[in-house]
């Protein structure tokens, strides 16, 4: 019997900018959202409606990409494009900034807390994954920097039962890391996706992992004892869900209570898959049981299952909204809600266009951009947007720029 | 001293600008919904400035109307652009400028795909992948200097 997703509430969470991520607190009572407006918002239930309880405004200088709750629910970590990760401590209904973790060279794409609560993982466009340890004095220390990926790392997730870490990357691979003799190392590289892997998650038992990708598929991976006889485990892809998603699949979430799999897609839809109970565990079959094709009016970026309330799912979108469809045997009620915000300014128009005129004339660093230091400049831009960024800046300002200085050598 | 800056493509071929669009009676009628069509998208991108030369993308034949595909009912836009030379290092920047122009001008419902005309660039897969990654685009545009360069490309040059 096919189930239905019906809309519980739609909230305009981050007005005029996109909402990148939502995360439920471990007790299911609070929802944290973060977005392009550099803020984190905490939402709680008041009667039947979800209201904003707190806004954490000044923690970051750029987009906040992801937030993660500690397993005890007392701390919140936020990963930002400003290359830092902020740790917030909960004090009654408010949060205060405890510490800021620095080290990544550029945008931090994800932060995740290990189930033990003592370890934290972050990953970045600088291609690395960092593991941090926290002690009883709330001091954070980086214990390792892992460079297994060759490109931007999009997501990290911890295994629910073991101290095992998985990461997803723009290089189309998934890496699995384990601590061996006090040293963290990459145990396995899972290839299979044909484009950027955006997200991944483990099932409740940790025996399987789901990954989603720009190649429009979701893959299910299962753990097997390795043939090398050394007690290591290997992961094999046992199922690929293709043909369901019209565009990039940005997020996948495995419900720890019901085993249902939810996806957020660039075609604006949220979909729910359930496993066929009769299929063999080595060849699982997942079927689409519910979809909200116009869950949002723009790309859906994230889906998150409430850890305590079965069937309650939160999703968020580029148009800054959070919506919460409820999985139930009811008629589907879809469509754009009446309180849909008027045409939003795109996030681009929000940005301050600062000319840094004096910086450009002297060829010196723009104050807010760490990336602009000395000879690292060219390497920084080389592999990204243009080899001759500064050359083009010089050309543009040519008319006014008489005493121009080449920023890098020939 | 800045003299002797080497341009990548010192002698580009320059193409003719197409004339202004002729309005039809149905387009002038206020009560009839005008679907967004290829020409409208082309009109948005044709005057984008090339980062290297004082010329527009249309004049350099980097963008052409035939390489614009719009589906108003599906809310999709596909733009193919042709770098002037196969090793053009400005390709990502040009693609980004086209993408930004369309993101700023079109309704939010549109899905915008900008990619290099197949076979015309040595790194077309890498460039296409980066342009398609909205997180990379978002992060790049939070960098004020890069944004400045993009805005320069999108500004109206008075000739």
Automatic annotation (TrEMBL), chain A:
One GO cellular component, as annotated: cytosolic [4Fe-4S] assembly targeting complex
Annotated PROSITE patterns: PROKAR_LIPOPROTEIN, WD_REPEATS_1, WD_REPEATS_2, WD_REPEATS_REGION
Which UniProt keywords are given for this protein, alphabetically ordered? Repeat, WD repeat
Q: Where are the WD repeats?
A: 22-43, 57-89, 101-142, 146-178, 190-222
Is Repeat a UniProt keyword of this protein? yes
A GO BP annotation? iron-sulfur cluster assembly
Q: Please verify whether the record's keywords include Cell membrane.
A: no
Q: Which domain of life is it from?
A: Eukaryota
SMART domains attached to this UniProt entry: WD40
Record note on quaternary structure? Component of the CIA complex. Interacts with CIAO2A and forms a complex with CIAO2B and MMS19; the interactions with CIAO2A and CIAO2B are mutually exclusive. Interacts with CHD1L, ERCC2, IREB2 and POLD1. Component of the MMXD complex, which includes CIAO1, ERCC2, CIAO2B, MMS19 and SLC25A5. Interacts with WT1. Interacts with CIAO3. Interacts (via LYR motif) with HSC20.
Which purpose does this protein serve, as stated in its record? Key component of the cytosolic iron-sulfur protein assembly (CIA) complex, a multiprotein complex that mediates the incorporation of iron-sulfur cluster into extramitochondrial Fe/S proteins. As a CIA complex component, interacts specifically with CIAO2A or CIAO2B and MMS19 to assist different branches of iron-sulfur protein assembly, depending of its interactors. The complex CIAO1:CIAO2B:MMS19 binds to and facilitates the assembly of most cytosolic-nuclear Fe/S proteins. CIAO1:CIAO2A specifically matures ACO1 and stabilizes IREB2.
Q: Which PANTHER family match?
A: CYTOSOLIC IRON-SULFUR PROTEIN ASSEMBLY PROTEIN CIAO1-RELATED (PTHR19920:SF0), WD40 PROTEIN CIAO1 (PTHR19920)
Protein name as catalogued: Probable cytosolic iron-sulfur protein assembly protein CIAO1
Where is the organism placed in the taxonomic lineage, from the top?
A: Eukaryota, Metazoa, Chordata, Craniata, Vertebrata
What gene is it encoded by? Answer: CIAO1
């Amino acid at each position: 019997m096919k189930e239905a997703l019906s809309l519980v509430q739609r909230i305009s969470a981050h007005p005029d900018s996109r909402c990148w991520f939502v995360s439920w607190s471990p007790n299911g009572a609070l929802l944290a959202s973060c977005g392009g407006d550099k803020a984190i918002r905490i939402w709680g239930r008041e009667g039947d409606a979800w209201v904003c309880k707190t806004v954490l405004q000044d923690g970051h200088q750029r987009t906040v990409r992801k937030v993660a709750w500690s397993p005890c629910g007392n701390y919140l970590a936020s990963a930002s494009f400003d290359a830092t990760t902020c740790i917030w401590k909960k004090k009654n209904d408010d949060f205060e900034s405890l510490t800021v973790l620095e080290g990544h060279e550029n945008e931090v794409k994800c932060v995740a807390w290990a189930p033990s609560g003592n370890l934290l993982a972050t990953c970045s466009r600088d291609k690395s994954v960092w593991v941090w340890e926290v002690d009883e004095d709330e001091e954070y220390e980086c214990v390792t920097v892992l460079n297994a990926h060759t490109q931007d790392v999009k997501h990290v997730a911890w295994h629910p039962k073991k101290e095992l870490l998985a990461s997803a990357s723009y290089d189309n691979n998934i890496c699995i890391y384990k601590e061996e003799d006090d040293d963290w190392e990459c145990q396995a590289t899972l290839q299979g996706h044909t484009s950027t892997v955006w997200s991944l998650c483990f099932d409740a038992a940790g025996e399987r992992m789901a990954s989603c990708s720009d190649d429009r598929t979701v893959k299910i991976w299962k753990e097997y004892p390795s043939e090398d006889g050394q007690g290591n485990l290997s992961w094999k892809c046992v199922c690929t869900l293709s043909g369901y998603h019209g565009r990039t699949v940005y997020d996948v979430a495995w419900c720890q209570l019901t085993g249902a799999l939810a996806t957020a897609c660039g075609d604006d839809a949220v979909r729910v898959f359930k496993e066929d109970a009769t299929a063999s565990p080595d060849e699982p079959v997942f079927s689409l049981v519910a979809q909200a094709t116009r869950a949002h009016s723009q790309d859906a970026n994230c889906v998150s299952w409430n850890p305590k309330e079965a069937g309650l799912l939160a999703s968020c979108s580029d148009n800054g909204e959070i919506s919460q469809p409820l999985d139930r045997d009811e008629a589907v009620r879809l469509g754009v809600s009446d309180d849909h915000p008027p045409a939003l300014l795109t996030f681009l128009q929000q940005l301050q266009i600062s000319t840094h005129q004096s910086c450009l004339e002297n060829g010196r660093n723009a104050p807010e951009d760490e990336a602009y230091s000395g000879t690292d400049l060219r390497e920084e831009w080389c592999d990204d947007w243009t080899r001759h960024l500064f050359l083009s800046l010089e050309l543009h300002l040519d008319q006014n720029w008489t005493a121009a200085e080449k920023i890098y050598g020939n | 001293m800045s003299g002797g800056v080497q341009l990548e493509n010192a002698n580009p071929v320059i193409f003719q600008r197409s004339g202004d669009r002729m309005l039809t009676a149905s387009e002038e009628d206020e009560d009839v919904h005008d679907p967004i069509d290829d020409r409208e998208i082309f009109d948005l991108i044709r005057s984008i400035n090339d980062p290297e030369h004082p010329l527009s993308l249309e004049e350099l034949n980097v963008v052409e109307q035939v390489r614009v595909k719009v589906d108003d009912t599906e809310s999709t836009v596909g733009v193919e652009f042709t770098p002037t030379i196969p090793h053009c290092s400005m390709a990502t920047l040009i693609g980004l400028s086209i993408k930004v122009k369309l993101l700023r001008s079109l309704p939010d419902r549109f899905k915008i795909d900008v990619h290099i005309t197949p076979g015309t660039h040595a790194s077309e897969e890498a460039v296409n992948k980066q342009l398609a990654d909205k997180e990379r685009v978002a992060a790049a545009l939070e960098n004020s200097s890069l944004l400045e360069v993009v805005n320069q490309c999108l500004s109206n040059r008075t000739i």
